[in-house]
Structures are given as structure tokens and as C-alpha cells.
Amino acid sequence: MRNIKRKALILTCKMQGENNRLITFLTKEDGISTSILYGGPKSKLRSLVSPWNSGEINLYNDEVKHTSKITDFDVEKCHMSFRESLYKTMAANVATEIVILTKCAGSSEECFTLLNGFLDGLDLLDEREGKKGFIRFLFRYLGLLGIQPSDFNCVKCASPFYSRNQSQNDVVYKLGGAYYSQSENGFICSDCLKSLFDSKERQQLFELTPRAVAYLNATSVCEPSVSRRMQLTDEEINLLQQLVFSLISSGVGTKIKSLQSGTGIL
After folding, report:
1. Residue 33 confidence (pLDDT) above 70
2. Neighbouring-strand partners of residue 179
3. In sequence order, what DSSP letters do the residues of 207-259 get, joined into one string?
């Protein structure tokens, strides 16, 4: 097929020569692809094919020269608030780099849906809620990579970190802290922590709260609206960020440059 159309999300644009650009984009069908965009600074198409814009892309593939060029791009969604928020730009950069480094975690269709949903939501949220959205995206992406914790009870005593009071329709959280252990890939309650770990081992754990564990559980198994409604303190958000940043860095297996450059902003 020489001429094809795809629903695409633009990931990166890099200069190639004086006037052309090498465009990396994501589609459900083909995953991550690259194509050449011809035209100088005055080209209307060049202004449309920008990072994180999504829509219908038209491609011409030359089977003899083994090249691909973009002939048209009908933008359906753009994220104007990214231009005014350094945080949103950095978060979108990190998400994009992770997707490229992991090649969609082997699932281009799920990745396409997840990344588009994150960018669309981030565009609508303020910075604080954007941080929660970023945590949700990264934790769900850990699921695509197959390294997301699968048990949200204490991995030692199996006690739950929260329960629902049916009579009052309220959530009751376990007293004490909740600690993530990388070796166990799970969470440990305060009671088990005292008897199973020495002080050196405790320093290697990520400290959370039972409510933060409940948030990750909801992110993993519930409809997105459930975790979006859950309230977290600023401290809980920061602790969760530290955890998911560490887990995604380990999962990718190589340096995430945009995550490092975003220190102090993200």
C-alpha cells in the first residue's frame, strides 16, 4: 500500500536537513513509526504536525526507495495548556520517552489508548491533579510492562490495608504505615515490618500510607473515575511519585533522560 491513513499521535519532531523533519508517531495498528515531513518554516503542515497533536495522518510509502513521507495531517486534538505549563510539558515528555524506549510495552493498541487518555486528561487538570494523573499513567504502564504489583494486601500477613464499612458507606484504613518492598514486589504493613526487617533493610523500602496503597489498587482494577475521585494529601502524592518513578526507571532498564532533567519540576 503506497497511500495509507491512520489515527496517529505525534510523539517527537526532529530536524533533518535544513527544512525537513523526522516525525515519530504512534498508531494502534503499527505502533511506533517514523516518516519524513517535507517543507520549510512557512509550511502549514509543519505547524500541524507537532508533538502530542493527534488526528488522521496521511502517508505515502515509496516501496522502491523504502521511504515514507507525510502528505497530510488532520488535527483532531491538541493540548494548548501544555504551552503554558512547564510541568505538563515535562510530564508529557517523560511519558513519550518511556513509550518510545519500551516500544509500547509490546501492546501498541493499549499503549495508544493509555497515552492518549493521559495527555487528554493532563490538558484539563491543574498541576496538583496532573501529578495524580501522572502517577496513574505510570502505574498503569507498569501493568503493560508486566511488573506492576499484583497484591495490595500485606505480602507477609495478608491483612488488607483498607476495608469498607458497609453501614456507613465509608472506607476504613489500617493503622500504621505501608511499605513497598522491591524484593517482594509488594506492600508490607507496620506490624510485619517490625519483626521481619532490620534497620538497614528498612532504609531500602518506600514508605507509603494505607490510603496510598488503596489509591494504587483503585488505579489498577477500577474504572478511572474511581481513582480520580480519591483524595490524597500532598505528602502522599510525593511519596507515590517517588515510588512510581523508581519502578518505571527499573522497568525501562535504561536512563530516562527527560525524567532526570525534570528533577525539581515533576
Report:
1. yes
2. 188, 207
3. EE-HHHHHHHHHHHHS-HHHHHH----HHHHHHHHHHHHHHHHHHH-S--HHH
